[in-house]
Amino acid sequence: MGTRKADLAAPEDRQVLGQVPTTRIVGGVAVAYAASVIVQNAMFVGTGSPGYGDPLGDVLAYHAANRAAVAVAAGLEALNLPLLLLFVTGLHGLVRRRGAADWSRLAVAAAATFSAISALVIATHIAVVLAADGKAEPTPAFALIWQLHAAVFALTLPALGATCIGAALATHTSGLTRPWQRLLGVAGGSSLILAGAGNLAIADGSPLVFVGVSGLAAWLVWLVVTGLRLIRGQG
């Protein structure tokens, strides 16, 4: 009789034991993704990357002089995209076990959309660097590529905002995070969506972009805090 009970309990025990490393892996991916995005943005800030409203001459001069920095940032994006997708799909698996997968589906769909648009952002940025090579003055083609890059970047904001909101609500509903983390994620995601609604203004150099920057900062803080919580096995 005791052997039979042990046999019946074994699958459940194996499932519980299997959830612990999975939770930690998802948490580790979240922290790694946040760290990579922080390094990527710090590189642009540190090299004095121009804003979308700056004169084209300054934009040309920056990209002509900082080809290596943009190349490293583009390489980091090749790491960021799979990390983000791995995080949201892993998170979906965690919350599904807890019967709260609805919001995580939004996070997965939004993250896939964000990844596709982000690839275009990096592609156009690479084109800007290549177009700046050997140029003394900006050409109409250079101006067009830069404007396209700005417009595509602005459209990443609502997709990232939806990812942030979906992930924050999914983790809260499933009991993986505390209420203040839900508020942080929803506030950050809402800021990103609000900024994205003004995509034309942002592409034209509007300071509205800083609303999106604040949302991005909230998303990164949420990722780090949530990731560390999952690594510790809390929730």
From TrEMBL:
Alphabetized UniProt keyword annotations: Membrane, Transmembrane, Transmembrane helix
Chain segments annotated as transmembrane: 25-48, 68-94, 106-132, 144-171, 183-202, 208-231
Domain of life: Bacteria
Record's protein name: DUF4386 family protein
Organism: Dactylosporangium matsuzakiense
